[in-house]
Amino acid sequence: KYLLYFMKDELLDELEMVPYADGKLSWMSPQPGGPHERYAEHLETLPPESPLFFGMHPNAEINFRTVQCDKVFDVLMLLMAGGGGSGEDSAVVSPMAVAEATCNEIIDEVNEKKFPTDDISRSMTEEEKGPYQFVFLQECECMNGLVAVMLGGLRELQLGFKGELTMSEAMETLADALWAEKLPAWWVKLGFPSTRPLKSWRVNLQDRCLQLDDWINDPLSIPKVVDLSRLFNPPSFLNAIKQICCQTQGLELDKLQVFTDVTTREAKAVDARSKDGAFCTGMFLEGARWDTVSKSLEDSKPKEMFVQMPVINCKAGLMTDKVDKNVYICPTYCVPTRRPFYVFPAQLRTKAPPDKWVLAGVAMILDVGTA
Fold first, then answer.
1. Which of 5, 30, 167, 221 is the most exposed place for a label (fewest CB within 10 A)?
2. DSSP notation for 202-234
3. For position 92, what pLDDT does the model report?
């Protein structure tokens, strides 16, 4: 996209070198001809480095600095853990005491979390088990597997804290993770994509269980609005939308794609299920914002890193090679680190050229980790 913007004839006739800045920053290419000194003088007028030069919003630098700060504080936390305590100040809580308290809290939170997938599956006939039912059954099984591993490790660690078991290397690693507010390796492997610290991750885990509870109460249908950010495997739900379209319209699955229609409603305002597709929420824009008045993409507001999208109606339709200049194909990812957790391409209306949002790195993120 950079080559498409810069490599054109206007480059030799004072081309704007700050792409799509809309007057926020301007620096023109030098006029052709003249001695070398003239070009050197022109380069001296170059403004200070800015994300605008790369087509990005100034918020991009805030995000870069925030990531740098997080890394610095992570290192400081590791140094504190290795420094030990004096043992004289009673107000200072040892890392193992913090880990033990956290261990007990998490056991209390997830001890009753087990979804009766076998009973639910047997309660439905083969005709009643559609693509949506298989997706949510799979989600419940994933949650059961994660919780089982969590409880197994935590109960073992609990016995270690009580002195009833010898602390193994695996138990010490788990305790260190609990103290540092990090996710243990096995939880990451069996869990859902997330960049949250442990405390926020625990809250998010409860939210995901609530959505599964809603489905368990009425397994023959899906929630009126499905929160994609609370699924282990969001692409499987989007594939289910395409499978339903195949069944109802007799189309070939490999010729379908998911289309997005952004509504003006919030999730709480939706009182009925979508007639064609599924209402979805849990998506946040990064690098731009959604204007509910013009129903199109607009520049982000200063210091506004993520903007929650209204409810989006996801529906299936035949693939098309037609390019709409008023539509930006927006990549959607599970977490802010983006790859490898790609979900699907969404279609968002835009008044500006779609290339502007490509250069700005605009994407939708499911779990931004703000809660």
1. 221
2. HHHHHHHHHHHHHHHHSTTS--SEEEGGG-S-H
3. 65
**What 8-state DSSP symbol labels residue 256?**
E
Beta strands 363-365 and 327-333: pairing type? parallel
Q: CA–CA separation, 131 vs 241, rounded Å?
A: 8
- Secondary structure letter of residue 322 according to DSSP: P
Structure tokens of 5?
A: 């913007």
> And the tokens for 358?
């490509």
Average pLDDT of the residues of the chain: 88
The dihedral region occupied by 92, where left means phi > 0, alpha psi between -120 and 50, and beta the remainder, is beta
List pLDDT tens digits, range 108-148: 999 989 999 999 999 888 888 899 999 999 999 999 999 99
The pLDDT confidence band at residue 3, using thresholds 50, 70 and 90, is confident
Residue 240 dihedral angles phi and psi, to the nearest 5°: -65, -35
| 177-197 tens-digit pLDDT | 998 888 999 999 999 999 999
Helices and strands (DSSP H and E) totals, the chain: 11, 11
Contacts of 232 (CB under 8 A, 6+ apart): 138, 139, 142, 143, 191, 192
